[in-house]
Amino acid sequence: MQSKVITGALVVVLLAGGWLVGRMFSGSDEYGDLDVRTFQLEYIEPDAALRIIDPYVFGDRGGAISTDGQTGAITVRETPEMLSRIEQVLSDYDKPDPSVKLHFRIIEANGGQTDPGLEDITEALPKEVFSFEGFRLVGETVMTGIEWSEVAQRVAAGDRTFYIRGGIGEVRAAGDSGTVKLEVGLHADDGLVFQTGVNARLGQTLILGSAQPNPNSGALILVVQADVVRY
Prior knowledge:
By secondary structure, the protein is of the alpha+beta class.
């Protein structure tokens, strides 16, 4: 009889122990079961991803994050609902740096007729500042660069040579709208013609500046149109 009582007690203890072990490994608590998922990152570093998703992981209920710099992965333990949110957040941030296409045109303002295709220049020029009659395309180039990069291009314009150098700053794009910060300088063989900084709207024809380095020719106008390269 005593043996049966002891055996029964052992069964109760073992069952209780198994229940506790199960609780430890399943991660169950008052907030629900905790799952573990590993997210493979393509473009951002694991440490950067950790800072982004840290507000979504609650250590007081067993949530945890670990990173692997060698494989570019981040592992998270959280509730299934929170893991779904983390997946969405990472998908919003884990993207390549935005590329910007810059279409530059160097235009000479003179008293003649406007070249075909330059009608947008007349509309973009502020009438209270400029009063040019005609426009001639001197040269143009298209450059592409990523956010926080520098671009440079030589532009041949008949018997003259120009150089456009600039920097692409912060890019903000949402749908078909957005802005890009630019620092642009127009250079000739004998030095800097002008330099300026601007916050350009995507798709906008923007007059960056004008100058008249040669008194025997019309004023030079540098125009840019910026667009984000979509993936």
